[in-house]
Amino acid sequence: MASVRFKNVDKWFGKTQVLHDINLDIKESEFVVLVGPSGCGKSTTLRLLAGLEDISAGDIYINDKIVNLLEPQHRNIAMVFQNYALYPHKNVQENIIFGLKRAKASRDLIESRLDKASKMLQLQEFLQRKPAQLSGGQRQRVAMGRAIVRDADVFLFDEPLSNLDAKLRNQMRYEIRRIHREYQTTSVYVTHDQVEAMTLGDRVVVMKDGYIEQVGTPMELYLQPKNIFVATFIGAPSMNILDATLYPEYIELEGQKLPLATNLVKTSVPSDGQKVKFGIRPDFFQDEQLISAGEALTTLPNVHIDIIEPLGYDRELNLKLGHQTLKARLDLRSTAREGDTINLCFDMRRAHIFDIETEKNLTI
Amino acid sequence: MNRKRSLLQNMLLTLAIVAVLFFCLFPFVQILSTSLKHQFDWGNPSLIPVKINLNAYKELLGFVQATEEQIPATVKKLLENPLITPEQREKILAKYRSTSDVFPFPRFFLNTFLLSASAASVSLALAVLGAYAFSRLRFGGRTIIQRSILFVYMVGGVLLMVPLYQMSVKVGLARTVWGSLLSLLLIYIIQTLPVSLYMLGNYFRTIPYSIEEAATTDGCSRLQSIFVIIIPLSVPMLVTVFVYCFIIAWNEFLFASVFLKQYHMFHTLPLALQSLFVSKNAIWDRIMAASMLTLIPVIVCFMFAMRNLSGGLAEGGVKE
After folding, report:
1. Residue B72 — very low, low, confident or very high, per pLDDT cuts 50/70/90?
2. What average pLDDT does the segment A310-327 reach?
3. Rounded CA separation A347/A357 (Å)
4. pLDDT of A91 higher than 60
5. Which of A102, A234, B42, B223 has most Cβ atoms within 10 angstroms of its Cβ?
């Protein structure tokens, strides 16, 4: 177990700067997920920590020790690659114990670790097989086994589940969670899948264009996104962002005046007819017909239902409000039909107001 | 869309293939046939010997001592002539002596084998490191260096022969037999290195870099990862490159004829065969048997390379 720290880290590839002033503290045993769209620099950040790329400026610390100039083999890290990166000429057992053998571990230790890892990952019957004789999920488990048998300070995961199908991904997500609970090793996990980020991370780092946009727990990112990018990147379906006009006591949305909740009224925000973006998650809408009496909710009346997508566990409505489109995820009990209008209710305290220029959240 | 071939087209294609094969293989069959024929059979156009003669092979491989040729009575009478000087008598007698000292096949075979195997081994070792650098490392001038090395290959050996010999004379290597052998070894290495680098470099690029990265995070240095990952995964190509270098050195005549001309016992087989062709011992069955035996290592090498060219060693390591 170790702590990890990025201090003012920059990375340039030729004349292109791909990471800008990265500052991040990762505590011992913490599971941190780096998430963002393709090209945001999350994998590069991980590779800098692994020592597979040189940093251009700043410092990286593992256990308060600067590791900028240390080769990967001297950083005591274990990494799981997106494409598995197994040794194709070695069988599963040789793959798993490769790192231990390099470290000249005793035979007893190697055997006990191999036994534990192969049981945990259900690989006992495949130990003599070559990687080419395994399925994708089995190969990824071998890659995982190769990491966990080592007494590494930090586990690094570079999109390890992106090559698996949806069912296997869910299963492996569960395995990773279990492994972390068992070993408590500090872990850094890169993914572009916000569901993985939300379900795995103790904390999540959202990145965009080489910058860290926000660091927080999954629920902090979900409920209090710092800007429109984080608001729309985290959560599926993503947050509705609507054009609105802000006044001191209410917000005007397609001609409808919606009273503001107290948490949304900030004295620092000029609010006399200012054009803003209004954000509300589809999950926070409810069908007015299903509201129990006494709930203090705001109503958005007469929203036109364009398309309904039944997802089994709920119904996803694609709606039109004036010239704007939005989504709502409603309870299965809702009887709304395509072409109808619906009165949607929501808790105004869950809504966000974003600056139209800076896209920053004005309500936190 | 591919159109199906007609029967006539199929027959023409088969005929063409047979013709090409015949053209390629006939010389080898002719060599084998002649090597197995007795002297009386040499003029016979049939490829099948009237009676199999293995004497030439036995003699070359040292299974039997070459028999002393019987001196005809007329020659004996000639030798008794007092007007003949001892030198002249010696010259006449030499014609009827054993030829094993004139063409010591095992010795030439060993010379060639050691020289070719050394050149191929050194070339391969250098090519592994060089090709790795070209395929994996980022450094200034990489492309220029890579192209310059290939350029060496494009220049014919004849053009370089005189300057190379001059160089080796100037540095004193050509003065001794070991120096000459070393010069030849260096020339063979330089001759084979460009293609070895090219072949291995291209092969290394097909091995996913992430496997090496995994090895480094597992505790391997770069050099260790070459030995533990790259080399085991490149066995088919390493065998191919070794065979290529070995055959080039095995068949090389031009430079050997310049550097080893004066050192008869250090001749390589191509050089020795050429000497045999033009010597007074130029007996067809012996020449052809020697040629056949010279071909054997080349054929063995090819068969070995074919067995190892199964490929696909890197399969399964990464998700494509």
Report:
1. confident
2. 92
3. 26
4. yes
5. A234
CA nearest A206: which of A228, A196, A221, A195? A221
Q: Report yes or no: B216 at the A interface, CB cutoff 8 Å.
A: yes
CATH of domain A4-233: 3.40.50.300
A-contacting residues of B 24-63, CB under 8 Å?
none
- B274 band by pLDDT with thresholds 50, 70 and 90: confident
Looking at the DSSP bridge assignments, the partners of residue A305 are A319
Q: What are phi and psi of A352, to 5 degrees?
A: -130, 150
pLDDT of residue B296: 86
- Please give, rounded to a whole number of angstroms, the shortest distance from the CA of A23 to a CA of chain B: 24
Give the distance from residue A85's alpha carbon to the nearest chain B alpha carbon, in angstroms. 5
| Residues B180-189, mean pLDDT to the nearest whole number | 93
Where do the domains of chain A lie? 4-233, 240-355
User: Residue B200 pLDDT > 90, yes or no?
Assistant: yes
Instruction: Give the CA dihedral A285, A288, A294, A295, nearest 10 degrees.
Output: 10
A149 to chain B, closest Cα gap in Å: 11
Distance CA A32, CA A340 (A): 44
Pairing mode, strands A315-321 and A298-310: antiparallel
Class assignment of domain A240-355?
mainly beta
For an interface test with B, give the residue of A48, A75, A83 to mutate (most B CBs within 10 A): A83
Average pLDDT over residues B152-170: 85
Model pLDDT, residue A358:
94
Pairs across A and B, CB distance < 8 A: 89
Query: CB-based contact (8 Å) between B231 and chain A?
Result: no
**Is A133 within 8 Å of chain B by CB?**
yes
Considering A159-163, A340-344, B294-298, the range whose residues carry the highest mean pLDDT is: A340-344
Phi, psi of A11 (to 5 degrees): -140, 130
Q: Would the CB atoms of B218 and A98 count as touching at under 8 Å? A: yes
The pLDDT of residue A93 is: 96
Query: Which of the two residues, B161 and A95, has the higher pLDDT score?
Result: A95
The answer to whether A135 faces chain B, any CB pair under 8 Å, is no
Give residue B4's pLDDT.
Answer: 77
Q: Do domains A4-233 and A240-355 have the same CATH topology?
A: no
Q: Does A137 touch chain B (CB under 8 A)?
A: no
A78/B210 Cβ within 8 A: no
* A87 Cβ neighbours under 8 A, 6+ residues apart: A94, A95, A98, A131, B211, B214, B215, B229, B317
A150 touching B, CB under 8 A? yes
Burial of B19 (0-12, 13-18, 19+ CB in 10 A): exposed
Q: Check CB contact under 8 Å for A134 and B316.
A: yes
pLDDT (mean) for B250-258: 90
Pick from A79, A83, A130: which is nearest to B217 by CB?
Answer: A79
**Nearest CA distance, B312 vs chain A (angstrom):** 10
Dist. CA A140–CA A156, nearest whole Å: 14
Q: Do B211 and A77 touch (CB under 8 A)?
A: no
**pLDDT at position B157:** 76
Q: What angle do CA A220, A224, A229 make, to 5 degrees?
A: 105
- Those of residues 194-213 in B touching chain A at CB distance below 8 A are 208, 210-211, 213
What are the percentages of helix, strand and coil residues in chain B, rounded to 5?
70, 0, 30
Q: State pTM to two decimals.
A: 0.80
B138 lies within 8 A of chain A by CB: no
